[in-house]
Write the structure tokens for this entry.
Amino acid sequence: MSEALWALLQPSSLMVVAIALALVATWFRWHALAASLLTLVLVGIAVVVVLPVTEWLAGPLEDQVPPAPLPAQVDGILVLGGAVEWRITAERGQLTLNDAGERVAAAAALAQRYPGARLVFTGVFGDAFGQDFRAEGTDRSLWFGPVFAGRDIRYLGAARSTYEDAIVALRETPPRPGETWLLVTSAMHMPRALATFKNQGWTDLVPYPVDFRSTGRATIGLDWDVAGTLADLDQAVREWGALEVYRRVGRIAP
């Protein structure tokens, strides 16, 4: 239900709803209402194209938790879900990543850098990586090599939200005293993710944000990638909303 609500409230969906209402208004000959709704949509698109709205919304989120210096020793790498298109992966028999694919790419790179670290993926089951993270590669493998031979890799597919990521990870792979773990997720998602894990008691996490969507500099200028800009705007609006909801329900500290 929450996923459907977020999908409805994102800016691009609201624009579609406004267009649909304009068509209904035209059917009933409410031409003034239809014109007002379409004008509202066009103004919204113009604002997104000309003004750095995504930078204004995404930048402050991504700057909240800057990348920390990587430690010399890492005992575990925790990669949050949301990067795998699991339906396509299952049908095609090859790992397929979405716009947040940097999470998995970073996990592979960090696993090479820290060969003794445990590797934990939340929100995805192991069959999505059936050809990957193994000693010997196949014609469908993306990541493989000796560093993955006998590697301690866990897939916590039961987690379906950031809150469940923290609950399931702490239950299934609790850190041992004195261990250092990296938390890998999108930069926009990192403030909520890190705060959620800390609120559940996992305090010794080193943030490793990836998948940045803003440059950190807001400049006015035409951006004709309307679909891509709207997608980033949707994600930023959703993340700000989720952050506020998590604060209100007590999943993160106020």
Residues 68-210 form a domain with the Rossmann fold fold (CATH 3.40.50.620).
